[in-house]
Structures
1.
Amino acid sequence: MSFDRQNLQPFGPEIWIADGPVASFYGFPYSTRMAVIRVSDGSLFVWSPVALSTALRAAVDALGSVRYLVSPNALHHLFLAEWTSAYPEARLYASPRLRRKRRDLSFNAELGDAPESAWAGDIDQSSCTEALRSRRSCSSTVTAAPRCSPI
């Protein structure tokens, strides 16, 4: 299936999205999409990276320096190796449980209930960590929402 990997689209102030290829998840087609957020220091936070093409890399590089690669849950890890190879200086963040699943990757930290200080002023973050500890039903997902100023 063909798709336009270089199609990095503005989504909001300092936020861009790009669609990736369809991935199979237990036999079901699962679309992929990533977000790129420019944080206050000008560096880039890449949320759920999709397949990295030459054109997508050029589009991302034109925005700034990739400093954070973030996998929001145990499903959004398929393309992390490509991105860590392309951006070896970027810090790699795992969602809860992903570190055990992807032992081939060297994660710098695991996401938790509070945002990292590096992006705390720009992105809100929450997770299901407490629910996981108490064995309540919850997916291993960390959600983030950019803090946007009103227009």
2.
Amino acid sequence: MRPTKVYQPPFTTRPELRGTFGAIASTHWLASAAGMAVLERGGNAFDAAIAAGFVLQIVEPHLNGPGGEVPIILKRAGADAPIVICGQGTYPAGATLARFAGLGVEQVPGTGLLPAVVPGAFDAWMLLLRDHGTWRLADVLAYALHYAENGFPVLPRIAASILAAKEFFLGEWPTSAAIWCPRGAVPAPGTFFTSPLIAATYRRIIAEAESAGPASARRPSARCAGAATKSPSKARGRSAAFARSAATAANSPPLRPRA
């Protein structure tokens, strides 16, 4: 008898994942777990992506944040073509060549306030939730709020990123130092870290959006979204504008348990 030929998948440095219910992939296991939890509780793929994206803002602050960007490519089941939501940040009106030249800057710096853009991530996620999601804002933010308030493990790259900016924080940005270098020390890899200020901002957004009520909820603004976010939080105080964008999403149908 001739031996049966065994299928050998092509070599890859990433595992091949297959399933019959759904799949979530991200750069952090907690975000992937949050997205899968949304699917298991009856949310759709867009609800899951939003929940996972907000978790990434918390657990990977060296790569994501409320002040960042998120380009989104999506395709609804049965749709003929994909849709692109441009959640990329735009330059502020005052960031002109003449302004930089007047400051004696020949090249846009890589850190600080000068290279910061108008945040695009939040409006883009809200546009996705409004037009394609099914959950309320409070529900998709619940996972990120949990890790922000109760803690998440510090990755080695988080610690390395904070260490690289430590002296700058201590010397130039004391409020950032108070957050990222508590008691003047860089958080050690593996220790648990919380982000209470981001949590407070998002709780305020939820409260203000829900207080608008279904009748008076405004359509989410797409000022920053033309149709997964950067660095340890360049902007935490934009909750009023965010709340206007979140009003419709907050008053969408309540979380539905899985059948």
3.
Amino acid sequence: MCRLVYKWFLLVYKVSYGIGIVGYFVIMCTLFGLNILLMIKPQNSMDFGLLMLFYGLYLGVVGRDFAEVCADKMASQIGVCFLAHNTTLNFPLFSIYSRPNCTVVYHL
């Protein structure tokens, strides 16, 4: 089960990375004037490039955060306590998924 989940998040990462690269490539082509060869207006080309770039960034960040939540949830389901204590604030950050009677504690 864990392998399937991590393969899925790797796929999401690769797709979001690819979308960001395509957006960056379209923006650079627009700045160099290659959109005129394809008879595309600069406004449309730049809008498409920026949209792709920021969608790639957004999907990458959301995918990373969701993968972190799923990894914490899977770790709690198999019996691994994961408590991360912030030393400056002195409160547990991830104690939601931990089991109270376990002896193994991992720190960030």
